């Protein structure tokens, strides 16, 4: 009679990476919730809140650099260092700043749907770069994505007291998605040379320096003393649960599942955000909004790279992490 060991008796999804992929998706999805809760606890400027997040995240990004080091690892070359600063500017600095501005106007659910469109922007930008038009299937998938966004957008316009706020917030978050798409395109060969975790640590650390420098020069550092403990608490949770740990969990999931399957689990992100916003922020949840969510997710999961020989994206697309 064969006796299973405790490890073999454990559910397969706790061993093969699916648990890590789910935890990463959940962590990334909670970022907008923490931002909205911080805004509700005390009137705080987006730059101030972002600076707090980055101040708490900096030690964690430095830990990622240390943890992901290899015995033969060398400091980045001058060229790579310049690219890392450019990626930091696009991915974790501008993208996050635009996103925080957008969340002052729109719901967390709509914010996540707009951000989740960034794979369509990656494909369009790459098509412009390579001068290869996307396939008819890709155009159809993108049309489905934006049709779903339009449905969800109309829901928020109906719920908002001032439609201009929804337009402002959506424009900010759309700009966030564009800058993140540029960041994603810029990673390219650097991920292969450095590894995703080390690159995330380096770019994240550089972005912390940019954000904190921006805050010290143009923000209101004296206002930090007037913030309640809740604002610091939400910022710390954002840095740990929605920044550093999800990056680490996603890397573990990719090691076990591969990028495509890990990203497929990541498609749960918008769903988790919508329901978390309903449960924690009392945001409305209607059939119209759920229909838009379903269309966006369907479209994104059907997207394919324009050039199969050198795909910029895996078959399924990774979760948005900014």
List the helices and strands and how they pair.
Elements (H helix, E strand, L loop, with lengths): L5 H4 L8 H12 L1 H11 L4 H22 L10 H25 L5 H8 L2 H13 L5 H24 L3 H32 L1 H23 L10 H29 L1 H8 L2 H12 L6 H15 L21
Helix pairs in contact: 2-11, 2-12, 2-13, 3-11, 4-5, 4-10, 4-11, 5-9, 5-10, 6-9, 6-13, 7-9, 8-14, 9-10, 11-12
Give the percentage of residues in beta strands: under 5%
Summarize the helix and strand pattern as letters: HHHHHHHHHHHHHH
How many structural domains are formed by the residues? 1
> What form results from the Cα inertia axes?
globular
Task: Specify Rg, calculated over alpha carbons.
Answer: 20 Å
Average pLDDT taken over every residue: 83
Q: Count the helices. How many?
A: 14
Separation of the first and last Cα atoms: 51 Å
The number of E-state strands comes to 0
Poorly predicted regions: 305-319
Helix content: over 70%
How is the biggest beta sheet arranged?
none
Structural class, judged by helices and strands? mainly alpha
Description:
This protein has 322 residues and is mainly alpha-helical. The chain has one domain (14-68, 76-301). It contains 14 helices and no strands. The protein has helices at residues 6-9, 18-29, 31-41, 46-67, 78-102, 108-115, 118-130, 136-159, 163-194, 196-218, 229-257, 259-266, 269-280, 287-301. The radius of gyration is 20 Å and the shape is globular. The chain starts with 5 loop residues before the first helix and ends in a 21-residue tail after the last helix. The relative contact order is 0.22. The model is unreliable at 305-319 (pLDDT under 50). The chain crosses the membrane at residues 20-39, 51-69, 81-98, 104-127, 139-157, 169-187, 199-219, 231-250, 262-281. It is found in: Cell membrane. This is DMT family transporter. Pfam families: EamA.
């Amino acid at each position: 009679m064969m006796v299973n060991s405790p490890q073999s008796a454990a559910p397969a999804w706790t061993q093969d990476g699916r648990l890590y992929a789910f935890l990463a998706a959940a962590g990334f999805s909670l970022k907008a919730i923490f931002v909205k809760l911080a805004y509700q606890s005390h009137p705080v400027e987006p730059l101030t809140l972002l600076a707090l997040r980055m101040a708490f995240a900096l030690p964690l990004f430095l830990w990622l650099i240390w943890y992901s080091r290899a015995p033969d690892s060398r400091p980045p070359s001058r060229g790579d260092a310049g690219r890392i600063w450019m990626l930091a500017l696009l991915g974790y600095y501008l993208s996050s700043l635009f996103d925080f501005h957008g969340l002052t106007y729109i719901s967390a659910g709509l914010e996540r749907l707009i951000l989740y469109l960034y794979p369509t922007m990656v494909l369009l930008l790459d098509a412009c770069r390579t001068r290869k038009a996307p396939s008819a299937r890709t155009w159809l998938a993108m049309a489905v994505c934006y049709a779903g966004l339009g449905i969800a957008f109309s829901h928020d316009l109906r719920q908002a007291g001032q439609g201009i706020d929804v337009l402002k917030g959506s424009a900010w978050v759309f700009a966030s998605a564009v800058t993140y798409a540029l960041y994603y395109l810029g990673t390219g060969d650097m991920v292969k040379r450095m590894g995703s975790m080390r690159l995330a640590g380096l770019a994240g650390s550089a972005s912390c320096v940019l954000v904190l420098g921006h805050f010290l020069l143009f923000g209101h550092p004296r206002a930090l003393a007037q913030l309640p403990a809740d604002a610091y608490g939400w910022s710390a949770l954002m840095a740990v649960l929605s920044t550093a740990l999800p990056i680490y969990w996603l890397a573990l999931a990719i090691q076990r599942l591969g990028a495509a399957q890990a990203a497929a689990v990541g498609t749960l992100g918008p769903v988790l955000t919508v329901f978390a916003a309903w449960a924690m922020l009392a945001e409305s949840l209607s059939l119209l909004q759920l229909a838009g969510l379903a269309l966006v997710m369907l479209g994104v999961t059907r997207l394919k790279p324009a050039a199969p020989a050198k795909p910029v994206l895996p078959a399924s697309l990774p979760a948005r992490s900014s």
